[in-house]
Design a protein that fits this description.
By secondary structure, this protein is mainly α. It has helices at 13-17, 35-41, 43-58, 72-83, 88-91, 94-107, 110-122, 131-139; strands at 21-24, 30-33, 64-66.
Length: 147
């Protein structure tokens, strides 16, 4: 498990090598993670790791956990958020907070969801306008809006 993953940069070599699970994205990309770190943040992921590990270890395989519906960019944003608690607010942008919110909700990462919600709420202006949040919607032709 290599050190080319941005969420593991700056971590000691022994820590990088101790990753015990590979998250497998739809693209086939495999991202090494530490099940214990994710288990601290999410009961859902803890259950997924436990179930997958029990099944695959009995078969003599390494622990590979499918992570469907998540792009590499989204996965890296989530992993940076989980692995670098001090840098969380610096790593957030409106786009990353929106995709992180979706993943946090899906996988029960309540602390991440709360932080993303707080960040997005802070972007709403005092007069209630939220131009930065809705600029992509405003740029769409009106025919694309659901009725």
């Amino acid at each position: 498990m290599g050190s080319e993953h941005s969420y593991l940069l700056g971590k000691p070599g022994w820590f990088r090598k101790s990753a015990d699970v590979l998250l497998v994205l739809d693209s086939g990309k495999e991202l090494p993670v530490h099940s214990n770190i994710f288990s601290l943040h999410s009961e859902i992921l803890c259950d997924m790791f436990t179930s997958t590990a029990n099944t695959e270890l009995k078969m003599g395989a390494s622990c590979r956990l499918p992570f469907p519906g998540c792009s590499e960019e989204e996965a890296n944003a989530l992993l940076l958020h989980v692995y670098d608690p001090e840098g969380r607010s610096h790593a957030l942008s409106i786009k990353s907070a929106q995709s992180l919110s979706s993943l946090a909700h899906k996988y029960g990462l309540d602390g991440t969801l709360r932080q993303c919600d707080d960040f997005l709420a802070s972007k709403v202006q005092a007069d209630g306008q939220s131009k930065d949040l809705w600029v992509r919607l405003l740029a769409k032709p009106s025919g694309d809006w659901p009725v």
